[in-house]
Amino acid sequence: MKRRSSEASQRQLRVGEELRHALADVFGRGILRDPAIVDRSITVTEVRPSPDLRNATAFVIPLGGGDSIDLLEALRRCAPFLTREVSKRVHLKFAPRLNFVLDDSFDRVDKIDSILRSPEVTRDLRVEGGDQPLPDKDQESGTV
Q: In the chain, what are the domains?
């Protein structure tokens, strides 16, 4: 029986995590020679392989700011080399072709958080039975 769901299978999730670890290892070793990548810290947040495991989309974030477009172009130029390095670390029948995408999920989380903390929304989200606003993010974690 074929899967008709768009959810990733257990195998895809496992392979994606292995690919993420392998890419992080390659980036951590500093073996890339592209000037746009040298001395830059890159975080691989997620790798999503296709159902046939022949393609994989790697979501990356440059740490410390900088021009993320240049970094993305450099990663795309280095994709064949990265594919070879990853295939040495993850043993699959076929080495997945890597596609790199900037991960904007952290920016979206910050935007949602700032909207929820805005005075207009805070006013509407009062704690039931009182006039006290919701606790601040720093107060929830115990830091001041």
A: 10-106 (3.30.300.20)
